[in-house]
Amino acid sequence: MENAKDTFYITLRNRLAAVNPQRVMVLRGVQRPGILVEEAEAPAAQLPGDVFVLRWTAMSADTQFPATMMEMVCEVLYATSGTVNNAGLDRGRLLAEMDAELLAMLSPNSVQKMNYSVTPAAAMNTMVFWSEPAFQPVTTLRDRLTRIAKVTVWAYQEQGEL
């Protein structure tokens, strides 16, 4: 399960760097693509704006196959307040840009599962697959527009895998 989650995140991170190299953030003093995994970061009162935040919310296992098929739900949260130069009046456009970036990052919807706990990362024997995103309605809190897109991720659990 952890290898599938890591693979999904790193795939999206690398694709974001290709889709929009300007969408970056500084986290713990390091500039990197503007995407993070909520469970791997320190708790924050408010999620950062203009970045994608992955939140793993549900998991189930199907043991009817020769190998256990894991199904996980990932919520991709993102928000924007617009730009200062436009007094935030461009926040709808910026949210639409992030919608398009997410669609581009999720296509194609499968990738070779990798083990990133070793150096160099090692290819595993199975693939990670995911659904099209289910976009939730936009929510507004003061000057900030937020959207959640739910993606279902599937991967076979390999022998000895956590």
From TrEMBL:
It comes from the Bacteria. This is Uncharacterized protein. It comes from Acidipila rosea.
